[in-house]
Every structure is written in structure tokens, then in C-alpha cells.
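Cross-posting from the modeling subforum.

Setting up a comparison between two proteins and wanted a second pair of eyes on the formatting. Protein 1 (sequence, then C-alpha cells):
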Amino acid sequence: MLSRRTRCIACRAAMSIIVLYAISLPAIYFYVLNALGPSTEYYEPTIQGAALGADGKYYAALGDKIFVNYIIVRHKINGNCLLSVSRYAENIGGDDAGKLHLLDYVDLRFVGQNELRRPRWPMAGLVLGYDVDKDGKPETSKPLLPAGSDSQEFALYVKARYFCNFVDYIIPRYLQGGERPNETERVNIIVRRQKHD
């Protein structure tokens, strides 16, 4: 026959195991759900508001307003998610090759519906000229084209972090789909200081 003290220890151990199991079960469920694949997929980027040249490249001038269009699939299995979205331009070639420019930042709520959509971002459009801060205000000390430069090629793409469930706060999960980890497929544009015919 077990003593009262031994029974008490056994009860506490059993309760601890039950509590640990109850806490870990949702974490395991969401971890597996998150591992099934990206919540959102982006395909076939195009640029609206820029001229498509005979060479297959997009062209725009400083001050032009452009939109980047993607086909987007938001998977239903993940439900509703908050995405922290950063939209970048990266210098291709030139003296500052690889330099990043933040063009737009926004927190968006995505609803999982398994539907193909073709939205354009950002809703208000990008006015080419300067980097922006996290509030969307132009940083005039960071021009897209530095002094003395008449044109620059940029790769435009999106980076986004998911916040679909509490596991995403513990193990960060980012957008997939481009050539590089954590970013979408890129689309290139050549930005000129002056408009050309």
C-alpha cells in the first residue's frame, strides 16, 4: 500500500504530465501545420505603369507611379494571417550593386480561400524617387538614383513574415517562392532620371 506522501507525489507528477501535454499539443499541431508549406504563394510578377521595352524589360522615370502585380494564392488550411510585408528594390549592376531600397511597408491581413487573385501592390502605387521609412514617408536623403546617375536597373520583390498562430512568434516563418529564401520572385525595372520616348 502506497503512503499518503507517495500518492501525493504521483498525483502531482500525473497532473504535470497532463498540463504539459495540454500545452504542447496545440504547439505541435501548429508546428506541423506551418511545416506543410507556404501560406501564401506569389507567381508571375508584372509591372503596371511602366513601359515594356522590345528587350522585355520594364522602363520608368523618376516621379512615375507604378504597381507590381502578382498572382497570389492564399491557402485555406492556414486560415487568416497577418503578414508584415516589406517591398524592396535592389540595385542590379552599377557602383552600388546589391544595395537595397525599402519602397513600401505594410501589415496586411490575408484570408485563406484557396483562390487565385491578381492584386497590385501597393494599393496607392509606388512613386519612384526615394526610399521610404516604415510609416511610408519618403526619405529624401536616400534617393533611388544618386547624383550623377542617369539610370539604374532594379529588381523588385516582396519579403513578408507570417503571423498566423502563436508558433509564428516563436519560430519565425517567412514568405517563400523566389530564387532566394524569404522573398518572392523578382521583376526587373530600369528607372531613368528623364522620361524617354
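Protein 2 (same layout):
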Amino acid sequence: MVQTILNFLKGNYKTLIKAAVGIFILYWVIYVLTPTMQMSVQEKQKIDSLNLMIKDIYKEQQKLDSSIAEYNNKIDEVDNHIDKIKGQKTIVKEIYHEEINRVDTYTDNDVDSFFANRYK
């Protein structure tokens, strides 16, 4: 097997060297003829300024997010207060509903004292 490879190399070494030189020349031509992209200083400055603007926008977004979180906490507190007031309202409504049903049995003085206590 090794002998076969050596015989092939000995018989075709000129062709192999020509192929290697051809590949090297092709690579060199492509490397030389391919234009390199270079950015001007102004373009780099524009990109840097845009990056700074993006960072500032991210900071502002974080401030807005924290403000939203604070407002959500305040909304939760108000919701809790509303629920508490609704519960108290229901209790007061039940108490006075019973009182209103009993008003038929009240005398005039009892009705006056009822309204005086209720509305002070």
C-alpha cells in the first residue's frame, strides 16, 4: 500500500507541484484583488454615538420599568383598600338593612333618634 502511494508520487510529482503552485497563485490573486472594507473615522464615530444612545435608552427603559413596578405596587395597595372598604360597606349595609326593616315598629321619637344617629 505504501509502495503504491510512493509510486504514484514519483510518477506525478511534476503535476502535483504545478497544482500546488496554481492553488497558491489563485489564493494570492484572490487575496490581493479582494477589496478590504475599511470604515472611515466618521463612520466609526457614528457607530460609537449610536451605541451610546442605545445605552442611554436602556437606562431610561430601566427607570421606566422601575416606575411601572412602583405604580403596580401602589395599585395593589389601592385594590386592597377598596376590597377592605367593600367589606366594611357590606357589613354596614347589613346592619342598617336590619334597622330599616325594624323601622315599622319604631315610634316617631325612635325614628328621629335613628336618623340622628345614622346621619349625625
